[in-house]
């Protein structure tokens, strides 16, 4: 992840497109299984194409990207055609699950591109890395403080979805994310005033926890423990990126808003 965000924009594109593709597979395996296989293929292609189109848009501009954006209509339309030819009684209800990862996975990762490249198309993956570092610190803080103070006599955060999460762990996430954000500010990895860094850390912490709870709710609904096995002991990529899928688009929107004002 660190190499992909720092070394070269093509490495970044391959890394992120691969993550999108793997998470689509994990999502479809969790929700649809062997149903709508043809639709799953076109959904997978739609997610990859959306990321690639926005990558080209952010790096090279609309003139170069417009054909890629227009070509997105082909796999999206193919999803609907595949649904029409599926004879199952829940075909159209399951069709929602074919399109859901476009909003849940592909759109957030596509938004990453508008932070990874500045308005002139220059690669600045270090800013996206800074957001990941804050998120990782939030996760570590939540785990350490939650295990130490929230397991036995702690106050449950959302027991109906995630019984192990506690308010103590949440405040641990908050403290760790704020501390790391301040360190990144001092290291000039985030080019904003300290209070903007503090707000970014707050956004990533709060919405990262919401993203984690959202994915936990989906896993509980579909009766799975992990979305995948690509990382033994940790689950799938969807288990690792759940916080980023919701928190990063909001954080990036805030960053672009601040940059626009400046």
Defining traits:
mainly alpha; about 5% strand; flat
How does this model look, in words?
With 262 residues, this protein is mainly alpha-helical. The chain has two domains: 1-123, no CATH class; 125-262, no CATH class. It is 76% helix and 3% strand. It contains ten helices and two strands, in the order αααααααββααα. It has helices at 2-6, 9-31, 37-60, 62-71, 73-84, 91-116, 125-150, 167-186, 194-222, 237-261, and strands at 156-158, 162-166. The chain has a two-stranded antiparallel sheet with strand order 1-2. Strand 1 and strand 2 form a beta hairpin. Helix 8 crosses helix 9. The chain is flat and about 55 Å long. The mean pLDDT is 91.
- What oligomeric state do the depicted chains represent? single chain
- Name the beta content range: under 5%
Overall SS class? mainly alpha
SS elements, strand count: 2
Strand count, sense and barrel status of the largest sheet are: 2 strands, antiparallel
Number of domains: 2
Side by side, the strands of the main sheet go: 1-2
Which series of helices and strands comes N to C?
A: HHHHHHHEEHHH
Please compute the radius of gyration using only Cα atoms: 19 Å
Low-confidence stretches: none
